[in-house]
Design a protein that fits this description.
Four copies of one chain form a homotetramer. Chain A is built from seven helices and 13 strands. Chain A is of the alpha+beta class. The longest helix of chain A is centred in the middle third of the chain and has 16 residues. Chain A is globular and about 45 Å long. Chains B and D meet through helix 4 of B and helix 4 of D.
Chain lengths: 262, 262, 262, 262
Amino acid sequence: MCRWIAYRGETTALEHYVTEPSHSLISQSIHALESTASVNGDGFGLGWYGTHPEPGLYRELRPAWSDENLRYLCRHLQSHLFFAHVRAATGTPVTRPNCHPFACGRWMFMHNGFVGGWNRLRRQVEALIPDKLYPSRIGTTDSEALFLAIMGAGMNDPVAATAQTLARLAALVGQTEPADRLRFTAALSNGQDLYAFRYAVNDRANTLYYREEANNIVVVSEPLDSEPGTWLSVPENHVLIAAAGERARILPLLYRQREAAE
Amino acid sequence: MCRWIAYRGETTALEHYVTEPSHSLISQSIHALESTASVNGDGFGLGWYGTHPEPGLYRELRPAWSDENLRYLCRHLQSHLFFAHVRAATGTPVTRPNCHPFACGRWMFMHNGFVGGWNRLRRQVEALIPDKLYPSRIGTTDSEALFLAIMGAGMNDPVAATAQTLARLAALVGQTEPADRLRFTAALSNGQDLYAFRYAVNDRANTLYYREEANNIVVVSEPLDSEPGTWLSVPENHVLIAAAGERARILPLLYRQREAAE
Amino acid sequence: MCRWIAYRGETTALEHYVTEPSHSLISQSIHALESTASVNGDGFGLGWYGTHPEPGLYRELRPAWSDENLRYLCRHLQSHLFFAHVRAATGTPVTRPNCHPFACGRWMFMHNGFVGGWNRLRRQVEALIPDKLYPSRIGTTDSEALFLAIMGAGMNDPVAATAQTLARLAALVGQTEPADRLRFTAALSNGQDLYAFRYAVNDRANTLYYREEANNIVVVSEPLDSEPGTWLSVPENHVLIAAAGERARILPLLYRQREAAE
Amino acid sequence: MCRWIAYRGETTALEHYVTEPSHSLISQSIHALESTASVNGDGFGLGWYGTHPEPGLYRELRPAWSDENLRYLCRHLQSHLFFAHVRAATGTPVTRPNCHPFACGRWMFMHNGFVGGWNRLRRQVEALIPDKLYPSRIGTTDSEALFLAIMGAGMNDPVAATAQTLARLAALVGQTEPADRLRFTAALSNGQDLYAFRYAVNDRANTLYYREEANNIVVVSEPLDSEPGTWLSVPENHVLIAAAGERARILPLLYRQREAAE
């Protein structure tokens, strides 16, 4: 059960969102509130877009709270679209390649959730990754496999690709009796548009909030400060779409999923 | 505010004390109970005596809970006298040399506590380390400096050396108005005898418990299981002496300290 | 192109073979002689058998030459059968799970070599791992995949299982024009018997030497000292079998492989 | 014996100097040419100035050649004045705080060299650090101690402060018979001006080269490419001063040192 934050808006230093708020992601790494895992100390990562079309990544297996580099980078890196993630591992090793975000070409992804019965389903999920993307699987997490499966589903319509992949996942976790659970609360971006998903099968979905001010939107696992009225919850099984230069829209994901599955 | 465990007795695999108990040191690393810092994720260490007169050390800056090596070592290492420590840093960096235990020749030391006003007092504490031991200062913690100061005070009588050093520390932290605090709950050994100290100046001392069964004694920051009746508390400002082959004795440290200071 | 050492014989401290010799594995980590990669600084590992039926592992992503823990462990760990390995990565990330040796139940394995065209062949090699062993794939190297494929081929006859797996590999690398290369110089053990393989397809095999004295045998990538007359080379495409309590035998592997393939 | 590079000029991505050249600093980390230590695998660091008056730092104890984060950062970080350093440790532990560059307020420093007899002289060198800067000593290297001693000598005239500190060092290393050696090839900056020193006592100085083109200057331990005619050597016991917006000047350091000592 990880914690993350995604930002799209005016170019800003990452520190204003990652390290400075009263309940910043860094403070969530050692003491999260709305999570079953209160400690998220199994590595962390930053991903950001700048002038280069592909995102930059800084991922490290130490806890975020004691990483000196992270504080320097959050002060010095400026971006119009960035992700930050603190990890609570659910079985796979604590390595840099298993830390979020993941990048593939222009795309970047991070995840809070899990595929239940991963040991049983891993091969079938990995089989969703097309051959040409399989060399991009440099870690061993369920999250990275989901990302590459989504990438392989065709990124012309990223929401449809995600919905289609989730429909396949829903079928996989439903094979057993009792059924396995799936939780998928994730962010996806191409450097222009930001997509955030809140979804679950056979389980409650992990929390997801956002705050929109002028052209800036922040999407988070849990609020960064105690002004709760300003944070809106994304409903379960919905997707938030914050396209470049547009206000965020919240759409039902189940509908899209059903549509995709047909 | 760290957590630690010290063992002296029959040769045994470390896992029986470090990883297996219901509230083992590993579980304390992610969720300590009797501590102001409930997470002790700033590195950890093992120290143990075998056939070689000098102890072995395994220290690592990752959290103990996610370290695969630690589980293998606790299963395979057997020792009649060992230390294990999980760290919650109080200002100095998270590096291996700043992890406990510390070793110097045949001696080994670990600590839970702090020297208040360390930035102001550091030079004066380091000045207590004799020149010939100063090359052994490979880290930057207050704990390592205290250890080397004790080592320099003459180890023919390790309790007197510790009491003398603590008397000097008490004088240093008392220089200011308001006075600084000192907390010192530490274990010391030469591979035969085990000493455990619980002491504080201008503050409450950190907790210290022990359990003695036949020839085995375990000394801990907090009980390893929920059989609380079997755990005895070491009183504040006392030292526990578990000499080789003898029952543990609890002696007042203040008396020895006063004596040493005169 | 990695470097490794395997020992089977009288119980001894690892330091006599890993850290002390004039051209020890540690010195090979920073300056190997008979290797295309003179620096083997992409992590290292120890694996050893003790009283527990499963081996212990210590793997770390730092270079071996600067790891303080490694020196302590080599001094304090004693074993009748151990492996040590320094890594020069050939494309997969520098993580602990990608460091050798690998363990699976009672078995332990390490490797010097590579599967050419890994990005193309990875899926087919991973498909050789049976479902029940796939959860044991915690890293992403070709070496670990080969180990689990061998394990899956049935360990009643480990040489036959290895030969069978190599025959399958030989078929895979031979699919393309020009053919890919395969180098496989590996050690395998169950805690009693030691097997060392030297094999290649479409390429020269990596070097492999051994020295046998009384009941002790050491198998190495390159000699540990400059007494070259005492080191014997294992011929290409042969296997060295040092069964518990027996003298080493050298057998042709191609013959066994052909046999296995039939 | 480390390797480093310093840049001052037009704002540029770090990759053009740190990772891309044919003999880049990264390639020097695994195979330096003009150095007694051909492997510089004991950690590395980046330091750069941006819009914030204090520099950013990224320091890591892994070898530079296998660090994925470093490649991302060199692509995405842009700066008008940056340092990069790969370390070959000369006795102090491989920790992040022992990696170069070091920062103190607006100032940044990195070093290639050593103080001979460091175990004997360490206390005397640390005594050159004024009390108010002693909390900034977070590592244990001779290099960091030299930097803080220089900082304490008054930064109104950084060359005079360095010369004065070196004069004191020269006196310290000259106390013994035979005299100890001192090698000091270092870079210093406040974000506007770049200073590079090449100095030695009782020894040859480490190499130092620079290339100046238009308003850009690069100062390096060894040339980054095989266009040797374009690289000029800084003479021993000289300082290169590249003040903001000015051409570089080379001045004798001995003279300044003598002056400072008087």
